[in-house]
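#lab-general

N.A. 3:47 PM
ok so I finally got the sequence cleaned up, no stray characters, all 341 residues accounted for. can someone with queue access submit it? mine expired

B.Y. 3:52 PM
send it over

N.A. 3:53 PM
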Amino acid sequence: MDKESADFSSRTLEDFINDPGFVLWVTGTDQTADQFWLQIQEQHPQLIPVIKEARLFISSLRFKSDYMNGQETELLWQKIKGEMAPVKRTFRRFSFWMRSAAAVLLLAMLGAGLLFYFQNQKHEERTAFGQRKTLTLPDGSVVILNANSSLHYAKKWDREEPREVWIEGEAFFKVKHLHQSGLIKKGERFIVHARKLNVEVLGTSFNVKNRSGLIKVALVTGKVGIDVAGMRNTEIRLLPGELAEYRDRTHQMIKKTIHVGDYTAWSTGELHLNNTPLKEVLGMIEETYGYTVVLKDPVLATRKLSGSFSSSSEDNLFKALSASLGIKIEKNSSTHQLIIK
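B.Y. 4:20 PM
back already:
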C-alpha cells in the first residue's frame, strides 16, 4: 500500500516508529517528504502529539558523527573530483549505493534500538476503588489485583532474565513454576517488588499488601524468600501459613503464623474477620472503597468483629457490618464520607 492510500487515522506510536518512510523523514534522509507529513498532520490533528513523540524518540536514537567545516569539505571534494574525473559516472553510482547502504544501516540501528525499547517498556494495570481485576502475566502466571491498586511489569519478558513485577496496593499471585532440576537459572526466578521489600519465588501462591507504609506478605503454598533492598542480613524465608510484616518507619520485619485464608479471602469477594477491631475494618474500607470514615463515637473503634462477610457489594457489606455491631452507617455522596454512629 502506498502512502497516499494508507489509512493513518488509527496509527499508534509504534506504527510511526516502525514506518521506514517516517524514519527517513525524521532523520532528514528524505527531505522531499515534508509536504506529505505536514498534510497528514492537517488531515489528522489528533495524531500531532503521537507524531511529536515518535519524532523525539527516533531523534534520541540518532548517533553523533564527526564533521568537517565548509572549507575542509570543499578541499576534499575538489581532490576527489580530480582523482575520480575519468570515472565520474561510476562515482555517482557508487555514491548513490553508499547513501542507500547508509540509510539501511541507520534503519537497522534504529530497529535494534526500537526492539530494546519495546521489550523493556513497562506495562501498567490499575484498579479503581471497589474494583478487582484478574490478570495473566507474560509467563502465564495469574494475578488478582485488589481495589485501588496498581501493578507494573515489562511488556515482554526475556527468558534469560528474572521475571519482575512492582506492586502498589494489594494482589494475590499464583506464579507459574519454571524450575525443573539443578541450579536455579536467572529466567526461573520471579520477584515481586513492594517498596523496599523484594519477594522472590519459583512457583507458589501468596498475597502481597503494600499500603500506607506497611507491607504484608502471606504465603499460601510453596516457599518465598524476602529481603529489604539496601540492607544486609535481612532475608527471611516463609513457609505456608506464615506472614511477614515490614514497616517503612521502623525498618523492622517480623514473621508470625496466621490463618492465611483471612488474608486472601478478598480475592474471592469475601471479608474474613477474626476478633478484628472496627478501627482496622474501617481502614480497609477507606483503602478499598475510597471513603473517608467519620466515627462519631471513638469508643466504637475498639468494638471487635468475627465472621465472614461478602465484600462483592459495598452496600451489602455496610448493611452486614451495621447489623453485626448494632451501628448505623450513612453515606454522604457529596463529600464521599461514611458517617458511623
